[in-house]
Each structure stands twice: as structure tokens, then as C-alpha cells.
């Protein structure tokens, strides 16, 4: 039985280091190639030795697909392709291809320059790696080789995030990557058609959460910022360079525009500026509003948001500043935080989750006195706010996607085991499909029941459909024909053609049957009686009495002879060809019942 | 070569008398199918007269049978359909032929086209049941065709023509008495999605035509909701909705359990489910239909707003619930703490239903949708449901308030309007009010004004709420001073709705102090006026309030009562005379006397026509004065009073003109009076146009009188001209024209003539035979005598009469700073005006700019510049571009609004059946056709401008 095998090298019952191996109909595909944020040793990258101990990976993998540019989905790519060695194609969408190297370079810088690690990939390696990338468009079917094809669907989440359908023949797998089923200020919602894949590999970050409407969050956020600015206070929003930062920028920009506000908004320069540039370019990947209005004005060409300069932090008057990084653990955001923390008019808004140990986490958990380097004590008087802006589908969203795609099996990755368990149970209960949640390194095998396409000649099809009623979708239809399996292809043709093609002579197969009838009369009278009887019963068929004393019903021949021993018993010889089996056997059973009493 | 043929073809058509013959020749000439097709295409461009349709059809059919090429047959089939649409042609004579053509047709496309033709024929012959039966039978026969196009058309045909009444089917005794619903229902499972869609649409069509669909279809339709194709799903949603309206109370089982629910609830759940469909077309459809399912039980309804939040498998409260709790606990606007939204109790994993929960959170999803079309549909649906269910209105409030922050302005506006519509059912909590008020800072004027309208009819629960609203409105006022009027109006309603809540705020608002005198606020400050408007309106129903006023407040009251009487109500102030309460418009018992007064004074005028001219004149003058004053005092009667006053004015002018001595003396000696008479004639003409076009509610009875008056004025004009000009040549033309007009008048108002005994026109028509033959000088003489002898007509008053008015709000005309711009370039001037009782303002209202050098410019505002805030009210917000050559000094230009009219569009000519094109040319006099003009109907506003010479 054909099967699909899935082995997560990362992200199996875990978040981070997404890397999933799929083998489908003899093709091996690697989905995502991410790093783990929690580790600094070998565990940060997937264990590629699982694929092969020695030798290049190219021989074992047909292609690699990257769903989006977050490092936990693409962070290990240069390591994988340049240091381990892979020369095959890598597929990602255009925005991902554009932004991914920026993030990789940033990641490399932090690891090598700041932490001083050696044996890490170099800038050149990133460049070489990106040369192997093939960019794809949404809904474009890309033929990786003759049999394997992939297709990208919109996934929301971040700019350029995509879900991929991998298809070999009739078997297919959909990998969602990270996706978002509710639109936000700059991206639309994920969408997939009813492609009915054999397997849907879905993320499950929020498997046990049903989220509130994002409108409240947005409104709260805007109100907080607005109030603070009106009071003359300063607002600090620590963000990561890509993703949420752009959403919040758009949110504030439109709000400023609508409300005619004058206070300046700043955005820390560097990485973000570069990224914004790409956002401007890939307008088609954004949501309805931005796509529709960009003719008048590109929403990412901010009118109110300007680049930040270190000196601005000391300016008097209200302002809003977006600064990196998002958890206040280092860099510009921390510097500004130190400057502003003392004034109760100011406010800091944490738009995302903070890892334990960071300043962000400390202030969120209510700590008001922070110990900084050099034994300094920093008293935090400014207001601290938390707003969660997350771009993953919640449980309802995941279910909605499953409903849209109608897969035959579901496999959950990218989430915590406990939460997955709940969702798995729900999926099985509500969709009646199998659901799997393998751990890292564990292989799941799914048996598929692929339909096998058979070519049928048009003539045969028309002839067969002409017989009987209109085709009904719900009922299978019986057809007569010859199946020819030749050169890896299947064809259904009419028997005559099959004979001709195979160069075979036709053999006639006839069934002959004797039926004994008690009838004392003469042979030809018996024949006449049989003829009249049949004619009376088989109204829809042509029954003929031939001059030589035999009867034909369609192509079935009936002859009567007297029994050699008993003249009172007549022997009816019924003979039919294989094709008329149905009618022939019916006739014999009819005759075996005997003739009706004579009416003459 | 092709062109050559075309040319000759054209020639033929010109010479041949009959269309069918020409076509026949053409088609016979055609050598190839392409040629024939060309001819047919050309033929299709020209209209065919009713008489020749049948002939043409026969020719076409003849060629149809001969033709081998399917494309030509297709064209012929489509032409047949086109021809049978010809007005006045009854296609039953060609029906048999059309059906016969179906017999031998092999091409599916042609078949489909032929069926389409039959559909056209059938729809023209709907009254004939046997024809319909026959066509339905034909359609049923072709339902088994293998092409989707044919099946599609068949279903359409059945849907449009299938028997609707049970009885008919029996009468006609044919076997097509089969159940059409069954036949259509069988195709719900067709293999082709297009056919499935057509089947559902046919079913809906049957429903629209009045057939009661069977409930059995419901389960079939439910299955179609899961179809792969969006058109099918979209149509299925509609079908389910129809069924839910037909059988709301039926009971259907819930699959996979033994429970049963009402059909409408089940359908509601299913449609809610479709709000999260993959295709946005279906989502819009579903969201729209939800709004009209009012029979649904409240339990289901309220689920649509509850998404059943959870976090990490624990139940979580929504932000809305938290806000409510925060509010009720007495704490207001606390900072948010980390973990404030921490989930509370654990939930049972087994009980959580993620997808099948039907209605759960449908609106939450709809309002969050990516496409704004869906969001708007969802807001509309919310509005409709909330209007019928107060408890739901209360619940959906939070969601509507959230929509005020949508990224698309249209959605924001829609949700504000929605909120206004349901505001009777709700009271805003303070925190909600806060969010609502935040939108006041929006830079879009539409949004702000919609919000003001909303606040006009909102219920606020606390005095803090009122205070908050006032503060925010004042903030709005300082930020956007142009909103002044709208804000005052808003505060007026806010005050009169919440007198008891305003009362405790009064000392604070007026900043009075028990011991100290506070400085008198500036009377011209719009913010202060705003506060006063709020207080005075509240004081109207709160007699204790005036006690809190300080001296200057009373003075300000008197001033404002006079200057802004529409905003400040009359108050019963202690120790003061009631200034204007006897004629107060708000006190109902007083309405009748004033109406009586109006009628009495009119009666008086109409009865006293045989007094001596001097007396008549005086009476008219007094009555006119009375009426004008009445109009000023009684806004409801203003239209009526003005209208009659104008009419009487016309009459007065006419009498005066006829009193002149000039008539008895040789013309040249009385040039001065002469001028007076002709001026009177001119003025009467103008006034009649005003009467006809400036008032809404004028009926044909009034139009006759107005036209009659106009006719008199024209007669007067003619007489005056005859008196003053020498020679008869110009008179010939004028006389003829006048007689034509009399003729036209007679034709237009033939039905009204009996009511006009003894009038000018009545007498004139009696003399008509004589007039036509006599010389101009005699005509003039006759006219003069008839004019003098004629009685004056009683003007009946319609029920409702409103005068079109316009008020330019902006520019205010108060600015002393000239608008400077470089000469030769343009400057944009914002014009903002309110229009009342103007019909079709898009077509009639113009802006006129008058420059000091007498140059006038008329600007047609764009249709989009007009908004319609309420019945009978319009608002014009537009930009006028000004330009001029350089001036040395700043100077004032005048801006005013004009009402354009065109006698073609007049009510009189609209009443008589529109003559056909050919007739109108000869019959109607030219003059009736094209009198166009404009009536200024707003006070002109002066704008100071200064075009500077361009610097070189």
C-alpha cells in the first residue's frame, strides 16, 4: 500500500527549529530548516545526520521548502546547505527570499561578533545559499521534477508567509508553516482551496486558545498611546524588527492620520528601515485595504513615522518611539527605557511575549525597582502596559483551515505536546479523520489510497454512457472495456481496439446449454411454442423464428431436437456468446421453468 | 472585397420596401457561413417594426433549416429571441416553429440558445397556461441532455414558467403536471456545478413567483452548503434562508443526537457557519441574510456574539466583559496589569466544541473579516437584528463600538449609523461612551457629523457621561470650528433628553460661585454658546434650573433666543414675561388657529373680488403682509403662506398694471407707466416660475393656476408691446406665439378647464375662433378686455407645501482676511450649504459666483457632493474654483445657490402622457420645450478675495 512518511527533525511537539522530512511516493522533501532560540549548542540546529551519515544531502532530498522568513523556520539554512552540503533547489516566496538573508546576516552577526562563536556560517555562505533559492509566486504550480510539484498558498502571519502543497501524482501533502486566520492591519487571512490533501501538516501554537476579537486589543492600544501623548508623555514600544512592528506602525500611522495628531513617531533605524523597504515593494502580499489604496498612497510610506536618532530621546514634549529589540534586554530599546523610566507620564507598551530574565519580563511581572549593570538601581515610574499581538491561528482558526482544505489525515507540529493532545482529540472527534503528533525523530506513516488515473478512449466513453441513464455522481457506473497497462500508463479501450493493438486474434467463447422439455408434440411445433412463449415474455428483444427451425433472441441461438431415447422429451440447445452471458443465463433459467400450458 | 459586399447590401436595404425581403436577399446571396453571419450581425443592429417581425421570423426560420453551420444557426436562434422581445408583437404565432426547430438540432450551443428564445417567448406569454405547460414539457424533455448549457437553460425555463398554482396543473391534464419541484430538486445533485446553481436558482425563481416550496428540500439544500463550488454554496445559502422564512416553526432533528430544534434556528446556525466560508462572496451573502432572520430564538442570536474564549484550556473572559466588570466595580480606567486577562476556571475538554457550534461567534468572525464587504454586511445584519431585539442590541453594542476603529471609513460610518438606528434600545455605559467620543477627533467630516447625529439620540446613564460628552464635543469644536452648527444641534438634543443629569452640572458649567461674582463669559465664544444651548434645553423641562443662573445668563438667554431661535427653546423664566410662547411652534393647540387664520384671510380675498379696485388693492396688500408675517412666525405654515402670498402678489401686480391710465391714452405719452406695466409683467413671470419650481408638494391643481397666471402675464406683455411699438410686423409673430401657448395650455390642462369658469383662459377659449382669424390689433383689443373682465381664480392649497430653502453655512462671509491667490491661477473655495425641500438636488442646484465686474460664473457641483442626512434635507459640501485677473484692491465676490429649472421637466408636462418622438416635434409649441432658467434661493454670501498679479 502506498504510504507517506513524516519525520519531524524539529518542531515535533515543540516550538522552534521547524524542520520536517516528508517522503511521499518515493520523493523526499524537507519542509523548513529552522534554528531553536532556546539553545546555543548543537541542539539549536536540526540533526541532519538523521538523513544521511555520510555523503551529500543532495542525493537524499528532492527539494527544500521554506515557509517564511522567521529564524525558527529558516535559521539553519546556510548551515544546512553550505556546511552540511546541499545543492538541490530551495523554494520560498519572493518576499521571503528578499528578507530572509537580512535576518540571517543579523543572526550571524549577533552569534559571531557579539558572542564570539567560531565555526558558524559566514556572510559568504549566506550569499551562496541564497543562490540556490528558487522563488515562487502564490498559486503558481512549480514542477520540481516530472512528478513532484509544489504550490504556494497565502498564509498571513508575516509578509511572504506561505502554505505549501506538495503533490506527487494523486498523493498530496499540505504544509501550513505558521499561519493566521484572522487578518490584521497589514496582512490578510490565510486561505486554501478545497484541495483535499492526504495529509495536512499544521502548526498548533495556540491549540488550546480561542482568542478574543483583535479589535478590542487595537482599540486599547490606540487609546493608551493617545492618552499618554495628550498628557505630554512619551511612549516606548519595544519591538522586533519585522512582523508585528509593521502592523503597529500601520495602526499608529492611520490613527494619527485619522485623528489629525501632531506628536512625532519614531522608528529606530537599521534593520527595520531595510525591511520597510521590502514591505513597500511587496504590496500584493498585504491586505485588502493596503492593496486597494496603494495607487493613491503606499501605506508603508509613512507620513508621520520618521527615523529615530539617539539624540531625539532627550527632546521635550510627547513622542512615540518604536525601538528594537522587543524584550528590552539590550540595545536601543533598553537605552531609551532607562532614560524615560523615571517619569510617570511616560509609558512602555510590550507588544509581545518576553522571555524570563529579560528586563521586559521583570517589568511586566510588576517589578518596580530594577538592578542594572554596575549595581545601579533604576526605579520604574512609567506605566507599563502589555498588549498581545500574535499572528498565529487559534484553535478555531486551525479547525477552520482543516474545514477548508478537507484533508484525509492531519498531523500537528509546532506546539506543545499537552496542547496538541487536546486539539488532536477535537480534530478526530469533529472531522473523523486521523490525527498524528509525532515527537522529534519519530516517524509517522500514513497509508494512502490514491486513485489511479486511467485514460479512456472517447469513443468508448460515449458509447458506454449512451447506454442506460445519465451518469449519477453518487453511484459508480459499470463499464465494459479492456484495461491495458503498458509503459507505466493505464488505458481503458474497447476490446476490439485492444485486440488490434496487441496483435491478437479474437476468440469466440460460446456457452451452450441443453434444456429438457417434456413435450410430446413434433419438433417444429415445440419450436413454435417456445417461440410464442419467448416472444410473449421478452417484449423488448427481437425474437425471430428462422426458416431452418431455430429461434434467435438477439444473438442467442435456440434449436430443438427430439431426445434420442424418449420422444416425449425435447432437447433445447441454447447457445450464446460470452458477451451475452446475462441474457443467455436468463433465457436458460426461463426455459428451465418449462413452457406454459398450451393455449392452442 | 468584404466591404464591397457590405456596401451593396446597404444599398439594397435602402431601396427595398420590406425588411424581410432585404434580409432574404442578403441571406440568399451569402456564399459562406461567415458571410451569412456578417449579414445577420448587421441586421441585428437595426430595429424592426412590429408589423414586419413575423415576416422576418419566417425568413429566418427558413434559413435556419437550410443552414449547416452551427454558428449561423446560433445567431439565428438568438435573433429569434431578440425579435420576439419587440414591443407589441405577440410571439404565439412563432412558438410552434421555435419548438419544432428543437427536434432535429444536434449542436448543444444552438439548443441552449433556442431554449433561451423559448424562455423569451414564454415570458411574453405568461398569461397563457397551456403555452407555459407546453414549454415546460419541452424543457423537461431536454433535461437529460449531456451539455450543461442546455440543462441550465431548461432549468431556467422551468423556474420561470413552471406552474405555480396547484389547480392549473390538473386542468391542463397533461403529464407535465408532474411536480416541477421534484424535477428541479433532482438536479441538485447534477454533476456540473453550473447546473446545480441553475437548479437552485430555478427553485428560488419558483419561490419568487409564489410557489410554496416543500420543506423536504431543506435537507437537500443543507447538503449543498458543503459543495465545492462557491456559486452553488452562495445560492444554497439563499435557498436555506427562503425555507427558514417559510417554515420557521417546523422541527428538524439534529444529526448525531436525538434532539430536535426549530428549523429557523437550525438554518440560522447553518448560515452562521457560512460566515466563515472560504469564499468571500458566500460570506457576504451569508452575513447579509443573517440580518433578516428575525424569528430566530434569542438564545441562538446571542451566541453569535460569543466566541467562547479560552486560553490554555481555561475559560477566559473577553475584553468586553472585563471592561464591564471594571466599570461596575467602580474603578475607572485603571492601567492594565500583566496577567490581568489571565484565564480563570478550567474547562472540561470534552465539552468544548470547536467547529460544530454553529452560531457561535459568527458575528465576531464577520466583523473581523478581511474583506470590508463582509464587514459592512455584518454590521448591517447586526443593525437589523438589534432593531428587533433590545437584549441583542445591548449585547452587540460593544462590537459596534469596536467597529468605530475600522480601517475603512465606509465601515466606520456604517457602524455609526447603525448605532444611531438602534439607539432607542440602548443606554451607553461610561466606558463605551468614552470610546464613542474618542472618534470625535476623526479628521473625516462625515464621521464626525454622523457621530453628532448619534449623540443626538443616545441615552447616557450618568452625569459624568454628560460631562464627558460635553468636554469632548468642546474639544471637537476647538479642533474643527466648522462643526459648530452640528455640535450645537447635538447639544440641544443631549440637553433636552437628559435634564436631570444636566442639573447637577449647571454651576460647574456656568462657573458660578456661591459667594463671588465670576467674570461674564464672552457671548460670541462658540464654546460658551454650546454650553448654554445644553443648559437651556435641559432647563425647558426642569423648572428648578433657572434658579441657578446668574444675571448675565438671563441676558444671554434673551440674546440667544432671538439669534439662535432654532436651538434655544422658550423658557418659563421667573419674573419675566413669556416672550414668545403664544406662537410657540411646539405647543400644538395653537396650530389650528393660525391655519384657520390663513384660510380665513384667503377666503376674504377670494370673496371680495367685486369691490372697487382701490379696495381690492388694499385688501390684497394687507393680506400679503399678514401672510408674510405668519410665515415668519409659523415655520410649519411658512411654505403655504409664502406660496399664497406670492400668488396674491402676482394678482396685485396684475390689477395694478391694468389700473394704469395708459390704456386709454395714446401710447407714446405714457412711457413711464408703460415701463411699470411691463416690469409688472416680467415680475409676474418670474414669480410664477418660483411658484412652480421652488415648492415641493405642488399638485396639478396649483400648476394650472400658476400657468394660468403666467398666461395672463404674457397677455399683459403682449398688450404693452402692442401699445408701445409702432407697426404691426413684430406683433404678428408675438400674437401667433401667444395663441400657440393658449392652445398648448388647453391641451395640457384640458381636464382642469371645467374648474376655471369665468377665468381669463375660459373666456379666451370661447373667443378663440375669432382670435385666430383676426388681425393683431384686434387680438390685442380683445385680450385687453378679457383681461380686465376676467375673475381671479381661487388658489386651492395642497396638504403639504414646502418652500425650497438653502442656507450657506460656509463661507460665513465674516472674514476680513482676503483670500489671496495669484491671478490666472485658481483658488478653491469650500462651500458648505444645507438644502431643504429640494427635489433632485443633484440635477437642479448650482452655485453662482458673481465677481465685482459683473462677471458671473455658474458651477455645477458633482453628484457626490450632495449628502442626504434626512428626508427632505440635503447637504452640499463642495469646492468652487475661483479665478480672475489681477486686482489692485481686495474685493468681495458673491456666492449664492441657484435652483435651475426647465419647463420641460415641469410637473405639467410630466403629467400628460409623453408624446412619442415624431409627434412632439410638430405638435408642441417650441416655447413649451425650452424655457430654462434659474431661481436664486439662498442669501448671497460675500467672500473677500484678492488676486495678486503674478510675480515675474
Describe the protein's topology:
The complex is a heterodimer of chains A (600) and B (952).
Chain A: E1 3-10, E2 19-24, E3 27-31, E4 63-65, H1 71-74, H2 77-85, E5 90-93, H3 94-114, H4 123-131, E6 133-136, E7 141-143, E8 148-154, E9 162-168, E10 171-175, E11 199-203, H5 214-231, E12 234-238, H6 244-259, E13 265-267, H7 271-281, H8 288-293, E14 305-307, E15 319-323, H9 331-340, E16 347-350, H10 359-364, E17 369-371, E18 377-379, E19 383-386, H11 395-405, E20 409-413, H12 417-431, E21 434-436, E22 444-447, E23 455-456, H13 458-466, E24 482-486, E25 489-493, H14 495-502, E26 510-518, H15 523-537, E27 543-545, E28 551-553, E29 556-562, E30 569-577, H16 581-592
Parallel strand pairs in A: 3-4, 4-5, 5-6, 10-11, 11-20, 12-15, 12-16, 13-14, 13-15, 16-19, 20-21, 23-25
Antiparallel strand pairs in A: 1-2, 1-22, 2-3, 7-8, 8-9, 9-10, 17-18, 24-25, 26-30, 27-28, 28-29, 29-30
Helix pairs in contact in A: 2-4, 3-4, 3-7
Chain B: H1 2-15, H2 19-29, H3 33-45, H4 50-66, H5 70-84, H6 92-103, H7 108-124, H8 129-142, H9 148-161, H10 166-171, H11 180-186, H12 193-208, H13 217-224, H14 230-246, E1 251-253, E2 260-262, H15 263-274, H16 280-290, H17 298-303, E3 310-311, E4 314-315, H18 319-328, H19 362-367, H20 372-388, H21 390-403, H22 409-421, E5 427-428, H23 430-438, H24 445-456, E6 459-460, H25 463-479, H26 484-497, H27 499-502, H28 506-510, H29 526-540, H30 551-563, H31 591-607, H32 613-633, H33 638-659, H34 671-693, E7 695-696, H35 700-724, H36 729-748, H37 760-773, H38 776-789, E8 802-803, E9 805-810, E10 819-822, E11 827-836, H39 841-844, E12 845-850, E13 856-859, E14 866-870, E15 873-882, E16 891-902, H40 907-911, H41 917-923, H42 926-929, E17 932-936, E18 941-948
Parallel strand pairs in B: 5-6, 10-18
Antiparallel strand pairs in B: 1-2, 3-4, 7-8, 9-11, 11-15, 12-13, 12-16, 14-15, 16-17, 16-18
